[in-house]
Amino acid sequence: MPDEAALLVVGDVDQLPSVGPGQVLADIITSGAVPVVRLTEVFRQAAKSQIIVSAHRINEGCIPDLRKPGGENDFYFVEADDPETALLRIVELVKTRIPTRFGLDPIRDVQVLCPMNRGGVGARSLNVELQMALNPAGERKVERFGWTFAPGDKVMQIENDYDKEVYNGDIGYVRDVEPDDGELTATFDGRLVAYGFGELDTLVPAYAATIHKSQGSEYPAVVIPVMTQHYAMLQRNLLYTGVTRGKKLVVLVGQKKAVAIAVRNVSGRRRWSKLGEWLQR
């Protein structure tokens, strides 16, 4: 950078740290080597959104308002005492209740975000159930690497592929499956990408994904299971990151106790870095 230029770094240090090593933004802030401004005030227009108000409450260590709202709202809590009930409610929300009430497409507009992959309401189980409910496979399908893919499926790329120009976390939609040619085609942002059947280990169904995979993305509607069975992953920055992915609607499904555990838990795994020290010098 030329001497007369200034660098302005904008980010949200309260979200999950980066997928890769380090914690660059946090280190810059805690180094004390550069001036820092933190935006904490919820202004009048934003205060109308319970998504934003709830995100701020979570960030401050307070449990968001989980009561049933009196009128139309953009933040809801649906109680479910066990994983089996939660799974049924999530499928019902995504397939019927959200599309009917808010006019959103269940596949393209609604994203289920889970604290973890494993468990009865983890991303793996929910992908199987939501796929059967929203886009049951017909004869034109391919089964590879433990998953079934069929036209209309929502899929996620889980590795960077610089040749195909699709990257980890990108979401696309299966256009067609050609069993004779051994090829699947999917669209990513309107661009057609072809996969040989042997390359499908880089794709997974994306009706549900982990909150970690959702970093940097946003969706019209987000449904988040919050259960005590996810205890190992229930942390404030995880819940805050999940809630802030929703643009028009956020629904938490699960137990109030699990929400409280997540809000109070700030003990993330510490990352060891020298950047702060270098900046101080």
Description:
The chain is of the alpha/beta class and 281 residues long. The protein contains 8 helices and 12 strands. It has helices at residues 24-31, 44-47, 50-59, 83-102, 123-134, 236-243, 256-264, 275-280, and strands at residues 75-79, 110-114, 142-144, 147-149, 154-157, 171-178, 183-188, 191-196, 203-205, 208-210, 219-226, 246-254. The strands form 3 sheets. It has a 5-stranded parallel β-sheet with strand order 1-12-11-2-10. A hairpin with a 4-residue loop joins strand 6 and strand 7. Helix 3 packs antiparallel against helix 6 (236-243). The longest helix has 20 residues, at 83-102. The chain is globular and about 65 Å long. The protein starts with 23 loop residues before the first helix and ends with a helix. The model has no long low-confidence stretch (mean pLDDT 93).
Brief write-up:
This protein has 281 residues and is an alpha/beta fold. The protein has helices at residues 24-31, 44-47, 50-59, 83-102, 123-134, 236-243, 256-264, 275-280, and strands spanning 75-79, 110-114, 142-144, 147-149, 154-157, 171-178, 183-188, 191-196, 203-205, 208-210, 219-226, 246-254.
